[in-house]
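Protocol step 6 of 9: fold each sequence in the batch and record its structure tokens directly after the sequence line. For illustration, a two-sequence batch is reproduced in full.

Sequence one:
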Amino acid sequence: MNHFNLGPLHFQASTSVLVLIVFVLILTTCLGVIAIQRSARRKQTSALEVTRLFCVTYLCAMLLGPEWRTTIHSDLKPEIAILWDDSLSMTTEDAIRPENIAGNESILTRSALVQRILDTEFWKTFEKQDRNRVTKSSFGTPPPPENTNERIIAGTDINSALSRILETERNLRATIFIGDGDWNTGKTPIASAQEFALKKIPIYTLATGSKQYLEDLELESVNAPAYGIVDENVQIPFTIKSTLPRDVRTQVRVRSESGKERTKSITIRANSTHYDSILWKISEVGAATLTISIPVANGELLEDNNARDFVMNGKPESIRALVIETLPRWEYRFIRNALSRDPGVSVDCLLLHPSLGKGDGPDYIQEFPEKREDLQKYDVVFLGDVGIGENQLSLEQANLIAGLVKNQASGVVFIPGPQGNQFTLKESQLADLMPVQLDETQKQGLSESLETPMRLTPEGEKSLLTMLGDDESQNEAIWRGLPGFYWQAPVMKAKAGSTVLAVNDSRRNEAGRLPILVTSRAGSGKVLYMAIDSAWRWRRGVEDLYHYRFWGQVARWMSYQRNMAAGERVRLFYSPERPKPGDFVSLTANAFDKSGAPLQDESLKVTLKAPDGTLSQIELNKEETAWGSYSGKFRIIQPGEWGVRALASDDPTASIEAKIIAQSDPIEKTGQPARFEVLEEMSKITRGRLVTAASLEELVQEIDALPEPQPLITSVKIWAHWLSPTILVILLSIFWVGRKLNGTF
């Protein structure tokens, strides 16, 4: 590429383009001379050909890409900017003090090392003979401890800090960045480093801290449910991260403000993440603050991340259950007894006997609830050996149950029997809710000559649904000792997306062991499939202990989400239960009119009250169903307690209030390894260098030897300016008019 200047005008073109332009100009000149010699009006033709030549010359000049360049010489001395990280991550005590830095400690915090480096006043070398200006600034300073919310969301934005240097400082010679490279907000620092590279300003990074994790146990997260039933166990999942080089046997402790506590012994493997849960029994109604903690292990360097507080609400239970069956088999009788004797459950039974007619007596109903307002009051529906047909369910009734589950967060429990009636449900929407695939060739099920045990899967061992003991170790022994079964439904395998909690310990096929207990989600509701009908045998030797407990837990597990916030005419539930700032919370609501029928036309508005008192309002979208379902979402922008009030009309009874606790981990964490790779990439892009405090003198010498910044050159691309085509059009217009006046066509 050839470059040449005419004063402030700059041109560039390849040799082939220059040859072509010269050829075109010579050809145009020759053709013009010939035209003049042949013309009878030589004076007018000469003017016309000169105009043509000027047009061609102007067009050729534009092909050379002309630019108008202006050189601006700064009246400021060259500047060296020193920028250091002052965020919370810099308080990590893992920086090694080199011999060239004064002090007595061998290990100190990253921020302390930065201060020792600044105390050396190494930049004085740059200011000798008044050759450079030095500016010093920090970024990421955290809010004071009393500003809890602001401190939680405070982070490190290296990209913005570097961008401000470019925006506010001029005539930069170099930038020195001192920090650990641990950024967690804003864009990647590589973006601003590329801007520095375009301006040929090197970034020299001085790394502090260690690239290795500190030896530590950190209680990373606690995912406790938003509420629990009084006098019932809740499962509190937690995550612990270990960076210790050895296995640690320790205790997890949950403690209430009243002093009640529960512990669990666990073993955490070296350099691993441990996922586990602990049971907690809620003792009173209302919100309670609990603390989960682990003791400080030998060799731990950080002690402030071994405990977490969280809030959980206790609620009185009020569960409505509907049990539908054809034959009064033993399983039906004992399920009915278990639910009717449970003080927290109100049960209705519909017995559709094929020959004796409908069952009668306490807790019995005579007809299926045909209206949605009658059916929607049930939190869970138990479907025994029932299908679609004469003296059983109709197709419309089966579809109503499916709609209840999918649209109103109710649950359905399938408990098949040897009649195989549930195969007829494939004609209804309930077939899609079943979490298993059935074997059409064995509708009467699989019989066993010997008692067959079932075994919990890893998911089943952790599920609250199968928790029959007071802790996990006791629960495992209980399940091993439970009586087995002699009949199983013809299940081939579980469907994708479902969770298998227990399997047949003796039978298997090409898909694996045959599933016994399978759960899944369906819309906003839950589904449980139990492939045996002999849970009543669990009463052997212990009476109702495990049998009642199991079915009580099934009813509570099914109704959990539906009863998050339930009023007279509005029911509201949300996900996730414990959002963090930045998360979107999905709201789902069901609204009813005064007669209990689902609302059809009215809107549902939700008022949100942020932790700082700010009010906002959103309107939930009406779902295209006849169940009065609404949905919407909002974003959590602050940690703390959010108030949610849903209002279906001006009637106060058509409203419900709920509280959502947004608990956030601080964005900025201590104990994390320094990110040398980020610092190295920043320096590499800008042709700088990554160094440590031990090489401070070399860094000073290298920067001091840098050439002075080049003057700023501004360029206006003439060929791309709007005046360029305008001038060409004017010249061509003059040429065209001249041809007409000269009589040339």
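Sequence two, same batch, same settings:
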Amino acid sequence: MKQPIPRVFVVDDDPLVRTARSLQFSGLSVQIFASARDFLEQIPVDVTGCVVLDLALPDIHGLRVQEALITRGSLMPVIFLAGHADVATSVTAMKRGAAEFLVKPVSTSELVNAVREAIEHCAALQRERHEREDILGRYARLTARERDVLRHVVSGQLNKQIAADLGTLECTIKAHRGQVMRKMQARTLATLILLAVRAGILELDSRNKEATHERSTKVEYQSWSARGTAIATADLGRYSATS
């Protein structure tokens, strides 16, 4: 499968800056926007890349643009460029997952290095998302009883204990357990636990029990990096299939 070409989205209202950025990122796929509004209207969500964003845009403030990207489920890190150091704003930006908060003027090497690191981080986040979606797809094929058994199994209970808790026979639990392992494509208990943790299945089960009237569930998960936290929200409604 051919890997998508990483893209750099530069959002800046200064034409001289836009020209300079296009030259700095030679060798990368660069798309330039003169306004935040144009950028938000055209930006694809599921793309590998990063955003180089002027903080003080005339139409929409940079922090609002970052918030809009998060709301849409974009995993692209944002590199903020600011005219002066603003501690409060930079803290807010980093808490929301900004890759960098750089004060102008920024050297070419510093910016290009930040962009390349941000692209690598975005690719890692996308791999995690795709893996999570694959696991949740397997989970959706489980019956309600099989999901109950999965929850008990990954908590460390034996078949006899699960049978007692669920009011059924041990042989029945053994059969359900086999179906869980087959559908989840897990050969060992350790693998099953790892899948449940990676996909947040236990958290999903808990929320579904607390809010069974809701038709969809949203789970926030965090991926930490040395430069901050990238937060993405995955709509799991399509995985809440009933049995």
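Proceed to step 7 once all outputs are recorded. Observation for sequence two: Residues 108-140 form the longest helix (33 residues).
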